[in-house]
Design a protein that fits this description.
five-stranded mixed sheet, 23% helix
Amino acid sequence: MGETVRIPAGLEVSALLRQVQAEGGFACVLAKGEPDAGTLLVVISHNGAPPVAYERMPLSDGSRGWQATRKHDPEKPFSFGEYLDRRKAQDSDLWIIELDIAAGERFIGLPPPSA
């Protein structure tokens, strides 16, 4: 098996922000991580819809793929922000990026969630 080439996190973040903004969406960095080897957590919402956090996780085939790791719970309105704070405290290399655009999952290579 060949080794997967990994794009530096700072470059991936920059490209993601530009793509979303070029399509009329809003994108920003909530937490800046390590520019070369950092990992990404992407928060996606649109027009005030409940946010969903996505992270790359190991898959059964040994590769890494985007998985929804946290969804906003209206019964616990502060738990989503607390989750982001905990993840950043656990991993100082972590980038947290927010995307506010319709079907934002397409920017990380996922189909939009079904309604």
